[in-house]
Predict the 3D structure of the following.
Amino acid sequence: MNLAVVGVTGLVGQVMCRVLEEQHFPVSTFIPVASERSVGKKVVFRNKAYAVVSMEEAIARQPDIALFSAGGSISLEFAPQFAAVGTTVIDNSSAWRMDPEKKLVVPEINAQALTPSDKIIANPNCSTIQMVMALAPLHRAYGIERIVVSTYQSFTGTGVKAVKQYNLEKKGYTPDTVQMAYPHPIFENCLPHCDVFLDNDYTKEEMKLVHETRKILDDQSIGITATAVRVPVDGGHSESVNISFKNPFAVEDVKQLLRETPGIIVQDDVTNNGYPMPLMAKDKDDVFVGRIRRDESIPNGLNLWVVSDNLRKGAATNAVQVAAYLYNHGFFSV
């Protein structure tokens, strides 16, 4: 397999390389790609140094797969150019997620919808991925009517600039406006502000949770409202998810169903203070679910606490899992 990682020097690009190594993905030719200012820099993959190449050179080399994590505008410009030479692009930006012609894929849920003609495949938003991992089996069993979700999202989800701001503030420095990723301090603070505000006063991140969840679960009738909060946590998103089902359920059946779901680990032992935390989820590929309890204020209501490493299952791992699905199902003549 000839494989390119586009945005290889970024946070998610680096984790993509790590996950490819850990999962022993069959890479015969590795093509690291980044912006012009990074061309020529060396990156290490499987203990071998590679020089970063330009987008144009990578396209000319016609990789089988290109894992993209370089931002929406870059993806809109270059993903079609890769696809035109036969490359299958798995894109981590928001550029293609709501395009009706593009599949939005979490492999455990809807990879079976993919076909060899899908040359640009969208990776969902990090906060969406972990939530739908828990929701999908429950929706099939009980039918979801409405979701109320509040997120507690790591600053790592914003990228290198946010990590730099947090580290400067932690050391007691006040970053100048050029160095700041956020309009307010993030160290010892919470910002109810993920991405930009839209005309409806929700943020773009909050509306991603609405639209992407409906698309992945293939149900536009689900009512969804979200509040997304940026928190001073170094890796790992947490979510409080309140669900209203159409049909009745038993809490023990919900727990068992989640235990049996691939990619989900149930941590729900409140007697011994057992519940998911981002500190324990960091550097892991699973989605952790706990605090599973009935919402006693409404009929057929359920509360969940969902935690996952946003750079792994929320981004890099999910993309590599999509690539592995394509490879294992014979999408490439290698």
